[in-house]
Amino acid sequence: MEFLSGSAAATGIATINSLGNLGGFVGPYAIGLIKQSTGSFEWGLYFVGALLILSAIVTLIIAGTARRARTTATANL
């Protein structure tokens, strides 16, 4: 969070914490629903794996966008 300071950093940390806690609730619930539908934990774990891959892709996209914005801002000085 090097680009956030003060209350913006606190808000960012709180948002990340809230999403993590929400994932801790929704993840097991989703796995249970998928197991109930399919009769196996296999597809539930595939679902969680797909979400992990999706989150990695989103993180890389956001990091690349922030890096480009920082480079553009530095070049304009």
Structure description:
Helix 1 (about 5-40) runs antiparallel to helix 2 (about 40-75). The chain has 2 helices and no strands. It is elongated. The protein is mainly alpha-helical and about 80 residues long. The longest helix has about 35 residues, at about 40-75.
SS content category: mainly alpha
Low-confidence stretches: none
Radius of gyration: 18 Å
What about the largest sheet? none
Count of individual helical segments:
2
Strand content: under 5%
How much helical structure, as a percent, in the residues? over 70%
**What general form does the structure show?**
elongated
Distance between the termini: 23 Å
Number of strands: 0
- Overall average residue pLDDT: 86
- N-to-C SSE series? HH
SSE topology sketch:
Layout: H1 7-38, H2 42-75
Which features would summarize this protein structure in a list?
77 residues; mainly alpha; 2 helices
Q: What is the gist of this entry?
A:
Helices cover 86% and strands 0% of the residues.
